[in-house]
Hints:
Number of helices: 7
Number of strands: 4
CATH architecture: 3-Layer(aba) Sandwich
CATH class: Alpha Beta
Strand order of the largest sheet: 2-1-3-4
Oligomer: single chain
Structural class: alpha+beta
Helix content: 40-55%
Radius of gyration: 18 Å
Shape: globular
CATH superfamily: Glutaredoxin
Order of helices and strands: HHEHHEHHEEH
Number of domains: 1
Largest sheet: 4 strands, mixed
Amino acid sequence: MQRRTLLLAAPAVLVLPRHALASERVFYTPGLAEEAMDQGKTVFLDFWTYWCTTCAAQDRVIADLRASDPAYDAAITFITVDWDEYSDAQISRDLGIPRRSTLVALMGREEIGRIVAGTSRQDIKTLMDAALVAATS
Length: 137
């Protein structure tokens, strides 16, 4: 009888500081998004957490779209809201954010649109394009 040895390795866990996970990411602090909205800016809020696979998929799409068209960064204020830290914060309650992996585009305090747990490149592009149109109109 021939025996085969199967080695099982526990998945490696890599813990990086938040700033190392995404370049160009601006993290929410209380008042940051609210001030931009009160100034009438177009704001794209990404309710995110480092351990969420859906958030990671959204992040890849957003980063790719931003890299492919500098107009997004020129016109839209992108802010990442750490869900682990701010899930019960006033901004989350005011906007009725149901969960992490929620993307919300706003013009001032008026919501342009949102995506909840969606990772479709086309859907995210459509939301970002709507924000861009609002910002440049």
